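Data card: per-record layout.
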Amino acid sequence: MRLLYVLLIYLIAPLVIAHEAWKALFNPEYRGRLRQRLGFVQRAVRAGSVWIHAVSVGEVQAAAGLVSELQRRYPALPIVLTTVTPTGAQRARSLFKEGVQICYLPYDLPGSVGRFLDRISPQVVVILETEIWPTLYHQLGQRRIPLLLGSARVSTRSVDRYRRMATLFRDTLSHGILIGAQTPADADRFRAIGAAPGRVQVTGNIKYDLAIPADTVDAGRALRQQWGGERPVWIAGSTHEGEEDAALAAHAAVRARHPDTLLLLVPRHPQRFDAVRALLRKRGVPHAQRSAGAVPAPGDAVFLIDTLGELQMFYAAADIAFVAGSLVPIGGHSLLEPAVLGLPMLSGPHTHNSQDIADMFEHAGALRIVRSQEELGYRLIEWIGDPERARATGAIGREAVAANRGAVDRLVAMIEPLLRTSA
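The structure for this 423-residue chain is written out next.
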């Protein structure tokens, strides 16, 4: 079964590589990525690194606590962090200033994986969330490099898919891999698809260990004072196409009741900044642009955040958070950043990227689900008109995050024996 998988990957590879090269022609963020995905990464400073894989922005952010704790306990330990998306790489570069080598995950081709492992020479590999790469796992097993799936999860739908490929994935999961599952249900599902029962533990979700640096919070609050501390401020974080229209329509309804309210509009992808600027001009919305170094004037309705890596700071400057990627079928972005800051949260119905987290916040009363721009506007008006109630709602979310912390310590406890064994 594994050989059939490798053959299929080789057949698909030319199309994937051509697509990657095509994207690099038009998007500078993709340039240099293809070489790394083929395994041609910079050699690690020295052998014996801990390699942590975090697929995209949310996982990279979640990895910050794990990286920080490993560096605290093992200051000389080299760490390699891989991701798949350009936005993930950009976030990693902003988080990890030194002591962490950042590169892209290789394609799951034998040559690419082999070159990559030769260059970084890890002693332990930690893959966050759940990504099953048969070629990579096979080569790690051959090289006797310990592998830990951290903060791992498997949905019921994924179990059915894996069962249809039972031979391949049972072989993949039975190399002595350690699994730190998010929940007891996830642990049971891993065992059901072939993971060794004695090597599965429940560690919790590493994302709950998110810590926003104090200087980031202070910077956000200082910006808020520049705009006028009494002015109501809400943020639409990580918006996608279609959501800016909804946010602006909701904001118009809000300003009809609360005329001095400011919207912080944060598009998810930099390639859409021009389109959102054009939308604001077309609608005649008075606004300031972060990229121009401007400060929103009292008459500005919108502050467009057309820069990268500042979302947490602007969450800290807001009273209410709408977490986007959720009014359109993207799956929703991280609810944990505004929750850690104690903001009352709104989200669209499409939250499947982190459904368990969204459900937890909704059931606790920290999150309201809105299904239209009208409902978004209504909920904003409700909270802006009752700031004490809004603050109490935000406090519920902050307390829920605190109650679920601890996954980092449990994961490090699983990693430490592997470091000693490998050494």
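Known properties of this structure: The CA atoms of residues 315 and 338 lie 6 Å apart. The chain has a mean pLDDT of 92.

See the next section for split statistics.
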